[in-house]
Amino acid sequence: MSFKNSYKILYFGGLMLLSQLFISCYSFTGSSLKPDVKTLSIKTFPNNAPYNNPNLSQQFTVDLQNRFLQRTNLKGTTQTPDILIEGEISDYQISPTTISSPTMSNQTGNILQAAENKLTITVKVHYENAKYPQEGFDRTYSDEAVFKNDLTIQQIETSQVKIATDRIINRIFNDIVANW
Questions:
Q1: What confidence tens digit (pLDDT) does each residue in 64-103 have?
Q2: Cα–Cα nearest to 29, from 63, 62, 74, 86
Q3: What CA dihedral angle connects 11, 14, 16 and 19, to 10 degrees?
C-alpha cells in the first residue's frame, strides 16, 4: 500500500470520526437541555391584567405546554419536575397607534379615529431547573400585534392574540431550551 493511499484512509477516517463526534453533540430538535433533564411542569398562567380576556390564561398555558411537549423529549409531570415554569399574564391592552384624518360629524365637529390599533401582551415568567439551578430565571416578555381598526373584539382575540402569544412563547422556549 502506498503512502498516498494510507494518507487518504487516515484522512477520511478522521473526517468520519470527527463528524460522528459533532453529530453526537448536536440534538436535531435544537434543544440544548442536558440528557438528565426529563420532566416538566408548567403551571397555569393566571391573567392578572387590568383588562381580562377570559380565554387568554387557559389558551396561553396550553400553547406553552404544547410547545415544550411537542418539541422536546420532556415528559409532563405533576410530581417534582426537573423543570418548573410558572408565571402570570400581567398586561393586556389595546391602544391606538396611527390616527386617521379627521372626519366630520353633524354633532361634534372633527373626530379623530384610530387607523391602526396595537394589542400588547406582557407575561412574567419564573423558570426553575432542579438539576441545574443556575439556569433558572425570572423574566418579563412582551409582544404586540398591530391591526386595522375594522376588526371586532372577537377577531382581535382570535387572530391578534395568537400572533402576540406565539411570539412570546417562542422566546420563552428559546431562552429555556435553546439557550439563545
A1: 999 999 999 999 998 999 999 999 999 999 888 876 665 5
A2: 74
A3: -120
